[in-house]
Amino acid sequence: MLHSHLTTLNAVSRVLDTFKAEGVAFEALLAGSGICSADLQRADTRITTHQEMRVCANAVALRRDVGLELGRRMHVSSYGMLGYALLTSATFGDALRLALRYPALLGTLFELSLEQDGQRIWFTASDYREAPALAAFNVELCLVSLKVICDDLLGQPLPLLRARFEHSSPDYQGRYAEYFDCPLEFSAHANGFAFDRRWLDHPLPLADAITHRAIAERCRKQNTEFTGRQAWLERVRQLLSAQLHAAPGVDGLAEQMNCSPRTLRRHLHDLGCSYQGLLDDLRFERAKQLLGADELPIYRISELLGFSETASFRHAFVRWSGVAPSQFRP
Question: Architecture of 242-328 per CATH?
Answer without folding.
Answer: Orthogonal Bundle (1.10)
